[in-house]
Amino acid sequence: MENSTDRQLAEDWWRTEIIRMQPGEIRIRGYAIEDLTGRIGFAQMVWLMTRGELPTEAQARLLEAAMVAGVDHGPQAPSIAISRMAMSCGAGINGAMASAVNVLDDVHGGAGEQSVDLYHQIAAEGGTPEEAAAAVLERRAEAGQKYVPGFGHRFHPVDPRAPRLLALVDQAVRDGTVDGRFARIGRAVDAHLRATKSRPVPMNIDGATAVVYAELGFAPPLCRGIFILSRSVGILAHAYEQSLRPDRNKGPIPRQWLWRYDGAGDRELG
User: How far apart are CA 75 and CA 22, in angstroms?
Assistant: First the structure.
């Protein structure tokens, strides 16, 4: 005989505001899944799942633009390289994608979240964006935090993705979709770095998507997750491509090359 108290405890333990499901019925945030299917896009679904309400079409377009911009950055990117090596080692698509996603952490994949955090710190500082950015960045430098998340790139003198995203944000400001506060802050950081650094440290994809996410009101931890959703598309494409190739990619350098050894010289035991 079922114990109603135990059942209530179990139901309370797994409580959620996201989905209701029972035989013949699935509702996401109150909407029937069959009503959503074919009527909203994936970016709208991401917003609904994470924020609880549907975005406007303009908000969804801006979010989708940020997600499109971050899908891939070449096979040398750690997550992409890992997905290709995992496929060569016999993993399936799921294993390759999981292995790749697991390295999207603070150093590779976390800069967007960190950049949103930085923008919020500057917003809380008070004063003009330029004054606030200078104050926060100077404190970071004094504390030994030389790296500014969302700025600088080892390949691109100008990251081609950033100006395009900022232009879309500017259009969204003109349309009344966002207010532009974080775009001003991002540009203030960029200007401060240009004025104080010996070499250019321009805004990169992480700094630009952070502007989009902050303008749209996403909490910083969600921003890393959204980037992972975006980059997972590139991970999937590279893993599948590798699975179709006759050669195997089982290491970070071509097999005819060897790594440099700089340990102890040759020696004899005993």
Answer: 43
Which helix or strand (DSSP H or E) is residue 46 part of?
A: helix 42-51
For residues 229 and 234, give the distance between their C-alpha atoms in angstroms, rounded to a whole number.
Answer: 10
Name residues whose C-beta falls within 8 Å of residue 151's C-beta, 6 or more positions apart in sequence.
Answer: 189, 190, 193, 201, 202, 203, 204, 207
Enumerate the domain spans of the chain: 15-55, 56-249
Check: pTM over 0.85? Answer yes or no.
yes
C-beta neighbour count of 65 within 10 angstroms: 21
Residues in the chain: 270
What stretch of H or E contains 27? Answer: strand 25-28
- What's the fold here for domain 56-249? Cytochrome p450-Terp; domain 2 (1.10.230)
Question: Which residues of the chain fall short of a pLDDT of 70?
Answer: 1-2, 153-154, 156
